[in-house]
Amino acid sequence: MLSFTGMHELLAPLLYVLNVDLERISEARKAYEDQFTENFDGFSFHENDLTYKFEFKKFSEYAEDGTGKEKVSVKASSLSELDSMTQTIALLSDAYGAEGELGIVVSEKFMEHDAYSMFDALMSGAGGAVAMADFFSTPFGTSHNVFPPVIEASSALYHLLSVVDLPLHNHLVELGIEPQYFALRWLRLLFGREFSLEILLVIWDEIFSRENNIFKKPADNDAESNFGVLDSPRGAFISAMAVSMILYLRSSLLASENATTCLQRLLNFPDDVNLVKLTEKAKSLQILAVDENNSTSLSYHQWLHEGSKLGITRAHSLSLDSTSPRTPLNIVPESYWEEKWRVFHKEEDNKQHDVEKQVPNHRKGWSEKVRLRLSRTESDPSPSKVDRKKAPKPSVRRNLLEDLVQQLGLDEDADIIQCNEDINYDPVEVNRQDVTQDSESAESEEISLNFSDSPSPTHGVNDHGNESESSVGSNLCIDENDPESNNSESCGTNPECSPLPVSNSRDVTALKCAQNDDSVRKSATDMKERKLLSGTLQWLWKFGRNKSEETSKVAAASEDEKALNGQSGQSNVADSTADGCDSSSGTCSEEAVDRNLMLNFRNLGQSMLENIQVIESVFQQDSGQVGPLDNTSKNSLIGKGQVTAMTALKELRNISNLLSEM
Amino acid sequence: MGSSGQGQSNFDLSFKILLIGDSGVGKSSLLVSFISNAVDDLAPTIGVDFKIKLFTVGGKKLKLTIWDTAGQERFRTLTSSYYRGAQGIVLVYDVTRRDTFTNLSDVWAKEVELYSTNQDCIKMLVGNKVDRESERVVSREEGISLAKEFGCLYLECSARTRENVERCFEELALKIMEVPSLLEEGSTVGKRNILKQKQEQHTPPAGSCCS
């Protein structure tokens, strides 16, 4: 459905310009008759004729005149004594046409045609991003979550404003001023009612001298690129112009305490405007608008901000912009969990001594999340993400190590495993477990979030697994500052490792994939437990993992801490292998991943349930088992811990129920 | 477009009035006629326009914020937010164009019902352009009966001659002041509270994401 009101106000300036051009040309022709005829011979008319006809019809801006002049003036030496405007006119007129001299470029006969072409190009956007007709259209009789493009564009203005001037943006939002209240008119008429015609034509020149090609964004197709209006240089300038106008009124807007006064100012733009200031600001903002379009660093909180207040853009763009996938709805929870995660880490920091090592590890955990997010959204990394992405990830490495150990033989002495791990992690031997836990917990927090969201993120989890496998090698290299891969390092330090063939890595990754799926699920649930029991958390985590396997019950009870650690990792891997065996067909076979994934999840959920039942029975029957563990564990576990553990396990059970239902 | 009072001056009550109706019935003219006494030919409203009028009715200093909407905008996503928090809604039709009258009941009354957030808000039916008596096609009786049907006030006026223009807004304001809930909303204290609540609502997300 189109609402035509105001369209004629877009056409009027075009007609005006055409008229003025025509008048000037006829004036010039009268005054310099000689020049017009003289130059007639010196041109290759075919080229020029076509070019000028085309360009002029389509755009007919002064900017076009300018480029035309530059092109031609090289050839025209005899005209040099004339002023530039007349030169231009004379030269342009040399393309012959129906009337010989002035031809079809600017002719009274074709003014209607020209006006139509120009108006049509303006309204349709000629295939570009900004099609003015969009601003007049509305989805008719559609549901609430589909919004007219003009609303979307208005939101884009506010978004840009929030980037440039957050206080002003917040002020307007707090007053309840929705951008479309004023931007509707600004955009539909391309500022036609806001400025006098002379000023407007200058602004239009600026607007139309910018290309309308849609940006190609192979790498940065992220959240912010969803504002269709910003998707071309022209669109970006229009938004920048509007924001520049808002900023022009900044002080008076901030001074007014009520919405109506603000709106009055916005809708009654001052006549004596400083055009240079306005356009210069707009030009600088345009760059920013484009940058902003391409980066995501600032986007999240802005987006959240806007989404929560306007409540419009998000749902709209999500439903509309299928071509440009935005970060899904979990942005808000993600930032929330990031916060949680940081707080959690701070607490851990206090406990730990080796701060220096801890910090990079944090980053690694973060990188995990980023990677996860990236893989989930299937969007390419922005610059800010890229360097984080490069940061190595301990949990991956650790998992890989465990897998290696698994590969090399389960019978290996736990001490050796520990030693092996010590070599790699020696500065943080004690902390290592915590660190990896942390990063995993952060990871799992996110994942658990996703699980409750929708089934689709599960692909992301899988992707994550696959992705991290593929990049493990390089990450490790960076981390260890070692030219050799982790595998070879292990080989160097541990003779037992040396026979490790390269071909094994495939299996390792395959295993890891399975394990990842598995552990992700576990840690997703464990996470809650850990939160519950900050003191006994580590133990419970180990214990929970341990108890996941029936086989490890006895072992866990009888071995010392180091052995337990090793065993824990080991048996965990064993479990993963077991799980991986049936799931790997689904998760690790490159094809048919999606289809089997759900089935596997169901299976895994059920197996989880079984595991939990085992844990419960262990708790109830064999409470003595806790004793030795308790002594050896870093944190003492008392009866109270058991109770909380039980509740946590209940939680675990609930989640697994949920999982199996999925 | 001259802006009237800046809203900073003293007033006892503040109300939001919304003007709706088909395009070309004279909503903007009515408003301009009310605000500035001048009667010009106006360009069609794009989106929405705002005017503030300070005047005294029944011993109270009133500040009317009048939202002048575009007749074409009939899609909810654009117009629904205009209705938010309005204490008075003026439905305008052109007595020389029957379709503008029938559209009031067919379209606009339904819009009001759908989007008006204020259950008690006062509605007023206004037949404009009575100066063109010879061209009249909608009789006064028809107008009155429709107003009765909607349960709203009724007036005929002319933006050109300014006949009944001020009376129209006065009656509306008086009626609004008769309704306790609307009076409460209009009192400056209530207004400030609303603003505060709004700010409180908005602050937490802003704070958390800036950290």
Automatic annotation (TrEMBL), chain A:
<feature type="domain" description="Rab-GAP TBC">
    <location>
        <begin position="1"/>
        <end position="211"/>
    </location>
</feature>
<keyword id="KW-0343">GTPase activation</keyword>
<feature type="compositionally biased region" description="Polar residues">
    <location>
        <begin position="565"/>
        <end position="575"/>
    </location>
</feature>
<feature type="region of interest" description="Disordered">
    <location>
        <begin position="435"/>
        <end position="504"/>
    </location>
</feature>
<feature type="compositionally biased region" description="Basic residues">
    <location>
        <begin position="387"/>
        <end position="396"/>
    </location>
</feature>
<dbReference type="Pfam" id="PF00566">
    <property type="entry name" value="RabGAP-TBC"/>
</dbReference>
<feature type="compositionally biased region" description="Polar residues">
    <location>
        <begin position="484"/>
        <end position="504"/>
    </location>
</feature>
<dbReference type="InterPro" id="IPR000195">
    <property type="entry name" value="Rab-GAP-TBC_dom"/>
</dbReference>
<feature type="compositionally biased region" description="Polar residues">
    <location>
        <begin position="447"/>
        <end position="459"/>
    </location>
</feature>
<feature type="compositionally biased region" description="Basic and acidic residues">
    <location>
        <begin position="349"/>
        <end position="379"/>
    </location>
</feature>
<feature type="region of interest" description="Disordered">
    <location>
        <begin position="552"/>
        <end position="587"/>
    </location>
</feature>
<feature type="region of interest" description="Disordered">
    <location>
        <begin position="349"/>
        <end position="397"/>
    </location>
</feature>
<dbReference type="GO" id="GO:0005096">
    <property type="term" value="F:GTPase activator activity"/>
</dbReference>
<dbReference type="InterPro" id="IPR035969">
    <property type="entry name" value="Rab-GAP_TBC_sf"/>
</dbReference>
<protein>
    <recommendedName>
        <fullName>Rab-GAP TBC domain-containing protein</fullName>
    </recommendedName>
</protein>
Automatic annotation (TrEMBL), chain B:
<dbReference type="InterPro" id="IPR027417">
    <property type="entry name" value="P-loop_NTPase"/>
</dbReference>
<comment type="function">
    <text>Intracellular vesicle trafficking and protein transport.</text>
</comment>
<dbReference type="InterPro" id="IPR001806">
    <property type="entry name" value="Small_GTPase"/>
</dbReference>
<keyword id="KW-0342">GTP-binding</keyword>
<dbReference type="GO" id="GO:0015031">
    <property type="term" value="P:protein transport"/>
</dbReference>
<keyword id="KW-0653">Protein transport</keyword>
<dbReference type="Pfam" id="PF00071">
    <property type="entry name" value="Ras"/>
</dbReference>
<dbReference type="GO" id="GO:0005525">
    <property type="term" value="F:GTP binding"/>
</dbReference>
<keyword id="KW-0472">Membrane</keyword>
<keyword id="KW-0813">Transport</keyword>
<dbReference type="InterPro" id="IPR050227">
    <property type="entry name" value="Rab"/>
</dbReference>
<dbReference type="GO" id="GO:0005886">
    <property type="term" value="C:plasma membrane"/>
</dbReference>
<keyword id="KW-0547">Nucleotide-binding</keyword>
<comment type="similarity">
    <text>Belongs to the small GTPase superfamily. Rab family.</text>
</comment>
<dbReference type="InterPro" id="IPR005225">
    <property type="entry name" value="Small_GTP-bd"/>
</dbReference>
<protein>
    <submittedName>
        <fullName>Ras-related RABC2a-like</fullName>
    </submittedName>
</protein>
<keyword id="KW-1003">Cell membrane</keyword>
<keyword id="KW-0449">Lipoprotein</keyword>
<dbReference type="GO" id="GO:0003924">
    <property type="term" value="F:GTPase activity"/>
</dbReference>
<keyword id="KW-0636">Prenylation</keyword>
